[in-house]
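pasting for ref
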Amino acid sequence: MAGKRAAGGRSAAATAPGRAGGAGAARARRASRNSASRALERNYEQAEIELDALRDALGVREEVVTRAREIYRLSIEKSLVRGRSIAALAASSLYAAARETGTYITLKDIQQACNTTRKDISRCYRLMLRELDMRMPIVDAAGCVARIADNAGLSGDVRKEARMLLRRVSAGGIAAGKDPMGLAAAALYLACTRLDELETQKNIAHAAHVTEVTIRNRYKGLRDEIERLGVPMPKRKGRGGDGAGGDKEGLKRRAGRV
């Protein structure tokens, strides 16, 4: 009996360190999980700071930033943040949110407003599309008209004419596959020429963040299609009688841009 008790005692003594070691490992795992959770929360808090800064710099609506925060949260849940720049992921989240909500912001706009490269933003954006299974709506060129016109200081008549031209050519299918910003810029320039409003390609190109070559190429295609469709010239406002004269002050003001 003594031998059995001794053996039993040795067995209990042998298992005690094992139980202690198991408890210690469990505590270590919990501590590790808590530490990782705190790190991810700090990551998200830093991303919020980045998104707020982008909102202020770009002047985007709060709903866009709210959606960007949701996208960033999903990225955390999918472990996309590990080993990647918070600034780049926050910027790509905002870009994705803008695309989803129909807010036209270019990658160049975002890159200039944050401390990261366009290449990094593009890489993170493609990763998000793939891993979060996101489907982006196609950007309509007509939706870009107001943004470019605001930047270039163009009149309401020019905006209206440009949208009409885009509707007509879109029905014919020639707008398919074209960069919406370049197409909208060309439509605005064509609208200026049809309304006799003096404006330079350079000013519109700068407002649209495209090159003058892009505007010239798109302009030619638009003009030819409008002529083929027989779209009538618009009525000019501010002209009297036989069309002579016109709004001289307006012409002088616009001439200053040439």
